[in-house]
Specification:
Length: 97
Protein backbone atom coordinates (compact mmCIF):
# COMPACT_ATOMS: atom_id res chain seq x y z
CA UNK A 1 0.00 0.00 0.00
CA UNK A 2 2.78 2.48 0.83
CA UNK A 3 4.44 1.81 -2.53
CA UNK A 4 1.29 3.06 -4.26
CA UNK A 5 1.34 6.23 -2.20
CA UNK A 6 4.99 6.88 -3.06
CA UNK A 7 4.39 6.26 -6.76
CA UNK A 8 1.32 8.53 -6.70
CA UNK A 9 3.26 11.28 -4.97
CA UNK A 10 6.11 11.04 -7.47
CA UNK A 11 3.66 11.08 -10.36
CA UNK A 12 2.09 14.28 -9.06
CA UNK A 13 5.42 15.93 -8.20
CA UNK A 14 7.17 15.26 -11.52
CA UNK A 15 5.26 17.86 -13.59
CA UNK A 16 5.78 20.47 -10.88
CA UNK A 17 9.51 19.77 -10.72
CA UNK A 18 9.93 19.97 -14.49
CA UNK A 19 8.07 23.29 -14.71
CA UNK A 20 10.15 24.82 -11.91
CA UNK A 21 13.33 23.59 -13.63
CA UNK A 22 12.25 25.28 -16.86
CA UNK A 23 11.51 28.49 -14.94
CA UNK A 24 14.94 28.36 -13.27
CA UNK A 25 16.65 27.93 -16.64
CA UNK A 26 14.62 30.84 -18.05
CA UNK A 27 15.58 33.05 -15.10
CA UNK A 28 19.25 32.11 -15.46
CA UNK A 29 19.13 33.02 -19.14
CA UNK A 30 17.54 36.42 -18.38
CA UNK A 31 20.20 37.18 -15.73
CA UNK A 32 23.09 36.29 -18.02
CA UNK A 33 25.60 39.13 -18.27
CA UNK A 34 25.85 40.55 -21.77
CA UNK A 35 27.82 43.76 -21.22
CA UNK A 36 30.53 44.90 -18.83
CA UNK A 37 31.48 48.42 -17.79
CA UNK A 38 34.33 48.82 -15.32
CA UNK A 39 33.87 45.38 -13.80
CA UNK A 40 30.08 45.75 -13.45
CA UNK A 41 27.96 43.34 -15.47
CA UNK A 42 24.55 44.07 -17.01
CA UNK A 43 21.87 41.85 -18.57
CA UNK A 44 20.20 42.46 -21.95
CA UNK A 45 17.77 44.98 -20.40
CA UNK A 46 20.58 46.97 -18.77
CA UNK A 47 19.90 45.73 -15.23
CA UNK A 48 22.89 44.98 -12.99
CA UNK A 49 23.61 41.26 -12.71
CA UNK A 50 26.35 38.87 -11.63
CA UNK A 51 28.87 36.81 -13.54
CA UNK A 52 30.22 33.45 -12.41
CA UNK A 53 33.32 32.27 -14.22
CA UNK A 54 35.42 29.23 -13.30
CA UNK A 55 33.52 28.86 -10.02
CA UNK A 56 34.21 32.44 -8.88
CA UNK A 57 31.85 35.42 -8.86
CA UNK A 58 32.77 38.90 -10.02
CA UNK A 59 34.20 41.44 -7.56
CA UNK A 60 31.00 43.48 -7.06
CA UNK A 61 28.96 40.36 -6.23
CA UNK A 62 31.57 39.18 -3.75
CA UNK A 63 31.80 42.65 -2.22
CA UNK A 64 28.02 42.74 -1.73
CA UNK A 65 28.12 39.31 -0.14
CA UNK A 66 30.83 40.46 2.29
CA UNK A 67 29.01 43.67 3.16
CA UNK A 68 25.70 41.90 3.79
CA UNK A 69 27.30 39.27 6.00
CA UNK A 70 29.35 41.80 7.95
CA UNK A 71 26.31 43.69 9.29
CA UNK A 72 22.92 43.08 7.67
CA UNK A 73 22.59 39.34 8.23
CA UNK A 74 22.52 39.85 12.00
CA UNK A 75 18.98 41.25 11.79
CA UNK A 76 17.70 40.17 8.37
CA UNK A 77 19.06 36.62 8.55
CA UNK A 78 21.70 34.84 6.47
CA UNK A 79 19.30 34.40 3.55
CA UNK A 80 17.31 37.64 3.81
CA UNK A 81 14.11 36.04 5.16
CA UNK A 82 13.91 38.42 8.11
CA UNK A 83 13.44 37.91 11.82
CA UNK A 84 11.19 39.03 14.66
CA UNK A 85 12.73 42.54 14.61
CA UNK A 86 13.78 43.05 10.98
CA UNK A 87 11.72 42.58 7.80
CA UNK A 88 12.42 40.10 5.04
CA UNK A 89 14.44 41.53 2.17
CA UNK A 90 13.59 38.94 -0.47
CA UNK A 91 10.44 40.64 -1.76
CA UNK A 92 11.74 44.16 -1.10
CA UNK A 93 14.61 43.65 -3.53
CA UNK A 94 12.18 42.74 -6.31
CA UNK A 95 10.39 46.09 -6.07
CA UNK A 96 13.36 48.34 -5.37
CA UNK A 97 14.14 51.03 -7.97
Amino acid sequence: MSVRIVISALTLALPLASSSLAHAQDSAEKAKAVTEEGGKHFDAEGNPTFKIENGAVDWYTFSGYRRYHSDCHVCHGPDGTGSSYAPALLNSLKTMD
